C-alpha cells in the first residue's frame, strides 16, 4: 500500500509543501491506519463521519495519548482539506483536556554528574550542547559545521520545530571539544570524498552545487558511523547519528550517576537549560527566543518549575515548628 499511486501522490504533496521528513512519515502512517480501519475504502468515498469514528476508536479503544490523537487529526485534516479539497468542517470531536505537566529538571550538579559518566569526548560534547544551548536532540544531531560560530559564541538552529531557524548561545568552554570534533569530522569527510561520497544534503542542493559534498561546512558535527541511502534521492551518503545513539548513552550514564528519583531523557537537558536561566534572573522573553518558542506561554511552564508564584510564601508549618 505504501507504493500505491495514491500514497505516492500524498508523499509528493507533502514534499511540495515543504513538510519535514518526520511529519511526512507521521502523516502517511495515520492516513494508512485510517484507510485500513475502514477496510481499505478510498478516502474519496469517506468524510467527516468516518474521521470521527476513527478518532473515537483511537481515544476509547486504543487509549492513545491526547497528543497522539492530535497527530492523527492533523494528518487527516491535511488529507481532506488540502489534498482532496473536501473540507471536514466541524467534526464535533473534542479531545480530553491536557492537564499541566511540570517537566522533570536536573540540578546543575546532576547535569555535571551525568556528563562526567560519559567516556567518549564526542558523546560528552553532545550532551553538553543539549544543556548549554537548550537544544532538542534532533536539533543537536542536525548541527552542521557551518552552524557553529566559535568567535561569537553562537549556534544557528536550522529548520527546527515549525520549520523555523533561530540563533542560540554556544558555551565558550566547549571551544576545544568542538575543534577536536571538527578535526575528526574532517578526516571522515576526506575518506568519504575519496570514494565519491559526502554528507546528506538538503533536497536539490546537490544538483545546484555539485561539489557541495566536498565542503567541510556541510558536514554534520555528529556524523553517522555508516553510509546510508538519502531518503529522497536514494544516493549513498553520510547522515547524522540516529537519535537512538544518545538515548542509549544517556541511559547508561544515568545508571552510573545513580539518579533514581527523576525521569531523565534527552529533553530533560533542554528543560534544565531553561529553568536554570530563569533561576539566574534571565528575562523570560530572552529564554523564549533561545528555546524557539513561538508563544511565551509555552516558556512560562518553567516559572512553575522554580515556584516563582510562591516566592516569599512560607508554609504555615514553619511557624509552629
TrEMBL record:
The keyword DNA-binding applies. InterPro entries: CB, DNA_brk_join_enz, Integrase-like_cat_sf, Integrase_catalytic, Integrase_integron-type, Integrase_recombinase_N, Integrase_SAM-like_N, Tyrosine_recombinase_XerCD. Gene3D superfamilies: 1.10.150.130, Intergrase catalytic core. It holds the Pfam family Phage_integrase. Residues 1-84 form the Core-binding (CB) domain. One of its GO terms (biological process) is DNA recombination. One of its GO terms (molecular function) is DNA binding. Residues 101-315 form the Tyr recombinase domain. PROSITE patterns: CB, TYR_RECOMBINASE. The keyword Transferase does not apply. Keywords: DNA integration, DNA recombination, DNA-binding. NCBIfam families: integrase_gron. Belongs to the 'phage' integrase family. This is Tyrosine recombinase XerD. It comes from Marinomonas aquimarina.
